[in-house]
Amino acid sequence: MKYPTIVVLVLIVIGLMAFPVLAQDTGDTASPRTITVVGTGSASDTPDIAYIELGVESRSENIASAFDQANSTIADVISAVTAAGVAAEDVRTTGLNIYRESAPFDSSMSGQISYVVSNQIRVIVRDTSTVAEVINAAVGAGVNQLYGLQFGIDNRDTLESDARADAFADAQARAQELAGLAGVTMGDVVRISEYSGNASPFDVSNLAQFSMDSAGGGAVVEPGNLSVVVTIEVTFAIGG
């Protein structure tokens, strides 16, 4: 019987008939002619908000005494910074820690146990011209730990829009230059993608320049400027 042979021949013929159609389909999907560039833009402004991380640390052989001392001092600190112009809702506790500390065995107080209590707060200063005054008030009230000072821009929308416009202009200029070098004309925009690197778009360190005045012991703070950076990828069609 030759039925299997006939079936195989029929399948081969069907495959040959389908092949030219598939080849024709792939030939019709030509890649569009485009230019893709990356543009970067930036905009800067003076900070209008500051974040200060402050703390009080107390130590005692009696845990209750250390705890009471830390809490009493931090209460004085909160009163001092609010008197310096900080709103009560802009003061928030960020840490409260208690740990036991043992004196080194090779010291005269070998084996002695003491307790350390730390209480930290975060202060938001919405008038950056008063940052030094707030820090000085906190230190005067008993702060003995300063964990950080950071400046920012409360509403970055306008700054980001300016940086975005600058980035698009940069991308457009790059595409026009490439089109000229290639001897073609630049067409309409086909696709735009925006990239954000970090959670914060600032391209400089947000840490303020901070020091203590050697003459009077007060804080010296320079907020400087902050920059927002936007990066976009733009694809342009190539004209005729």
Describe the overall structure.
The protein has 240 residues and is α+β, with helices and mostly antiparallel strands. It has 2 domains: 30-47 and 155-240, Translation Initiation Factor IF3; 49-152, Alpha-Beta Plaits (2-Layer Sandwich), CATH 3.30.70.2970. Helix content is 35%, strand content 37%. The chain is built from 4 helices and 9 strands. It has helices spanning 3-27, 63-83, 131-141, 157-182; strands spanning 34-45, 49-60, 91-102, 113-125, 145-152, 186-195, 209-212, 219-222, 226-238. The strands form 3 sheets. A 4-stranded antiparallel beta sheet has the order 3-4-2-5. β7 and β8 form a beta hairpin. The longest helix is centred in the last third of the chain and has 26 residues, at 157-182.
Oligomer: single chain
Alpha carbon gyration radius: 33 Å
Examine the coordinates and then state which fold CATH places here, giving the name of the CATH topology of the largest domain.
Translation Initiation Factor IF3
The strand count comes to: 9
Strand content: 35-45%
The low-pLDDT segments are: 5-28, 197-210
Biggest sheet character? 4 strands, antiparallel
CATH class of the largest domain: Alpha Beta
Write the layout of secondary structure elements.
Layout lengths: L2 H25 L6 E12 L3 E12 L2 H21 L7 E12 L10 E13 L5 H11 L3 E8 L4 H26 L3 E10 L13 E4 L6 E4 L3 E13 L2
Antiparallel strand pairs: 1-9, 2-4, 2-5, 3-4, 6-9, 7-8
Would you kindly provide a brief summary of this structure?
The protein has 240 residues and is α+β, with helices and mostly antiparallel strands. Helix content is 35%, strand content 37%. It contains four helices and nine strands, in the order αββαββαβαββββ.
